[in-house]
């Protein structure tokens, strides 16, 4: 296989008709190039979508109250109601598979600014939460601290603000910690600022929210023990999707809602949506491989056809070698090596151009800034190794028929060929 004369012969065959060799190689190289680009594009989309889930506890559901559609236990149809803090404790006792249950309240934004800081004002969403909410939201403390359970217990008037709020209400080098904001006419001390973990952000509410202890919110804005909605996260090893029905039925019983009333309680299963996205990634990879391999097959067919033409042109040469006693397997090996060499060289060129294209795309993305749902397109080393294996197998398949055709030629008939 590593005979110098054999490799010299391969190079001579490839260089005898350069235009034909290049045209043949283009099909294989283009197929690998398309495969690499499609996989990189799919990975870029996957990275972008995963970035949106970065820092989010994906095994989570959100639950809120709506209007009842059925009368029950002496209560009328069309009734509005609220969750209570007692419902949170009830869920903890009845469903041990739950890791975090975060009761939440918020101020609904109306017209006009609701936050004042000196001469600066702004209109921001304000949340009353428990400290665990930071484990369920894609955010982290950038400066200072997040509120804790002592703040909850003592109902301290402290808040954590988004980085965009700091930029809008404060001077660039001004210290934020220890300052006061007036929210709906009530003063609160800033103890920390947060940033979002997602890099593409930029939404209307991105880092423009205010968080305070749930108990402080309830007291300041007269919410008593009412709960606007809940963020509920299951423990590792438990699926929140499998627990959803039990969770909803538990609060239905507590709030005296008909067990068959499907409209009284709304919920959003983030875990189910995340699994759908995961399935989408798998489908994208399948399509990329399917399309890329189809294009590659067309190139391989071209290689096989060209090898048949080459065998036809070398019929007399093969006849002489057979007449001189060369083993048929040696001739077959020669043809297969020529086919594999041409295929691998073509594919490597396709891989190189694919890698350069991906590198260029990443430079372009870095220069223009983050693009929504598309981040860092790339292919792994495993993909490159798989592509090389595909090339070797393809080269063998492309040379198999021509090789068999070559050894079937009878020496006496080959010698008569002009």
TrEMBL record:
Location of the protein in the cell: Cell membrane
One function term, GO molecular function aspect: transmembrane transporter activity
Short name of any one Pfam family annotated for the protein: MacB_PCD
Alphabetical list of InterPro entries matching this protein: ABC3_permease_C, MacB_PCD, Macrolide_Exporter_MacB
Alphabetically ordered keywords of this record: Cell membrane, Membrane, Transmembrane, Transmembrane helix
MacB-like periplasmic core domain: residues covered: 21-248
Span of domain ABC3 transporter permease C-terminal: 290-407
Any one GO cellular component localisation term in the record: plasma membrane
Main location: membrane
Keyword Cell membrane: yes
Domain of life assignment: Bacteria
Membrane topology, from the record: Multi-pass membrane protein
Membrane-spanning residues: 21-41, 286-311, 340-361, 381-401
Family that this chain belongs to: Belongs to the ABC-4 integral membrane protein family.
Protein name, UniProt field: ABC transporter permease
